[in-house]
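Quarterly update, task 2.4: zinc ion-bound model.
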Amino acid sequence: MTESRQNKGPWIHRFLIGLFSIITGLLCFWLLGFVVNDIVSWPGPSYETLEKRRLDQTVVAQQIALAHQIADIERKIANQNNRQKLLRDSTASSQTTMNQLLEFQKLSLQKDVKPSPDQQQALADSQKRFLANQKQYQVLNQEIVKFNQELKDLRNQQRKVTEKIHAERKPIQAEFEALESRHEITVAVLQLSVLVPLLLIAVVLFLKFRGGTYAPLVYAFCVAVLIKVAMVMHEHFPSRYFKYVLILATLAIVVRILVHLLRMIAFPRTDWLLKRYLEAYEVFLCPVCSYPIRRGPLRYAFWTRRSIKKMRPRPTGEADREEIYTCPSCSTQLHEKCSQCGEVRHSLLPSCHACGDTKSVELIATP
Ligand SMILES: [Zn+2]
Ligand SMILES: [Zn+2]
C-alpha cells in the first residue's frame, strides 16, 4: 500500500518544484526560439544579383550612358541660356548707350554743331557692339535649338530603353518571387525538421513519464515545444489553414482527456478505486454494486447514501458479533476472516483493523 501513496513533500518544496518547472519551460522555449530565429535569418535570394545575372547588362549600360548624356545636354542648355541672358543685358545696355549718343548727335546737328570724331567713334563702337551682340545672340539661339533637338532624341531613346528594361524585368521579378517563396518553404521545413523530432520526443516523454517522478520536467518541456511549434505553424501557414490545425489539435486533446476519464471509470486506478471502496464502506453500501450491506445492527434497516448519516445504529447485543459477509446482489466478498488474526475484516480495504495486516492493492482492486 505504501508505494501507491505519493509523497508530496512540504509546501515550500512543492512550490519550488513548480517554480523551477516554469523556469525550465521558459528556458526551453527561449532556446527553441533562438534556434528557430537563427534558421529564419538564413539569407534568402537577392534581387540585385539575380537582375545582374539575368538582365542584359549592355542595355543597362546604355541606360546609364543615356542618363549621363541627357544630364550633359541639359547642363549645356542651361549654360547657353545663361549666356543668352548676359548678352541680352549687354545688348540692352549698348542699345541705351547708342540711343543716347544718337539723341545727342541729333541735338548737335540741330544746333549745327558737328559731332567730334570721338563722339562719332563712340557711336560707331556702340553700333558695332550692338550688331555683334545680336549676331552672337542668334548663334546662341541656334545652338540652343540644336541642343533641344538632341535632348528630344536622347529622351526618346531613353524612353525606349526604359521600356525594354521594364519588359525584361517582369520575368525576373516573377522568378525572384518564386525563389523567395521557395526560400520561405525551405526555412519552414528546416524549422519543422528541428521542431517535429522534438515534438515526437515530447510526446514519447509525456506518454512514458507523465506520472513519474520527473513529470514536472516533462510537462515543462512538452508545453515549451508545443507553443513553439504552434507559433512556427502560425507564422508559415495562412491563418485559414492554421485555424483547422488548431481546432484539430484542441479536439484531439479534449477527446484524449474524455477517453482518459471514461477509462478511469471503466478501469479505475487503484488509489482512486480504494477511495471509492472506503466511501462505500462508510455508508454501508456494497462498493461494487451499491447494494446495502445488511449486517449487524443494520440487518433489517433501510437507508440510502444520504439517509444513513441521520441514522444512529444502536448496539443490539448478539447481532453485533462481526461475521463474514458477501454482497447478495453482486456476490462480492465484503467482510472476511483475516488470514493473520482470524478477526472479521473488510475485504476491499488494505489493512485489517484488528492486527494491521495489509493486503496487496492488486488483490483488492480485482475482487
Ligand atoms: Zn454488491
Ligand atoms: Zn487481522
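Highlight for this quarter: The mean pLDDT is 85.
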